[in-house]
Amino acid sequence: MERYCFESDKFRIVDGEDDNTNPEIYGLEFSKWLEQELINLGYSIQEILAEDWGWCVICQDKPFLLWVGCQGEFYNKKLVWSCFAEAEKLLFRNPFKTINMKQPLDNLNKDLLKLLKNNFSLINCP
Asked: How far is the C-alpha of 7 from the C-alpha of 78, rounded, in Å?
């Protein structure tokens, strides 16, 4: 799994957003920005979900889940934004059918990396 990290003042922390995640885990505005950017690239975003680790932007849900995880977290008093792409087969949907998830995941990673590099300076993830 590739994880991309950057620092930016572009996104603010929404009051109470970490009520939906673990304490001091942010990323709601980042995930909404990413949703719009991915829509502009042709992705059909299904929804944004809060998870304990951050925010999940669902890019597709059939025939498998393709999503981007987003979060903002403080490291040494600096807010670092990060994201990663993931594909996962849902076991209750055609459990014996072989699905090639590699190419769509590779494409999402390429699009994500290009999008981030065009807007931010990537850093090494803490």
From this structure: 8
CB 70 within 8 Å of CB 81 = yes
Kindly give the pairing relationship between strand 78-88 and strand 65-75: antiparallel
Number of independent structural domains in the chain? 1
pTM: 0.91
Q: How far apart are CA 63 and CA 112, in angstroms?
A: 21
28-45: per-residue pLDDT in tens? 999 999 999 999 999 999
DSSP string spanning 15-29? TTGGGSSSTT-B-HH
Q: Tell me: the pLDDT tens digits for 67-90?
A: 999 999 999 999 999 999 999 987
* Residue-number span of the structural domain to which 36 is assigned: 3-123
Q: Which residue has the tokens 């987003």?
A: 70
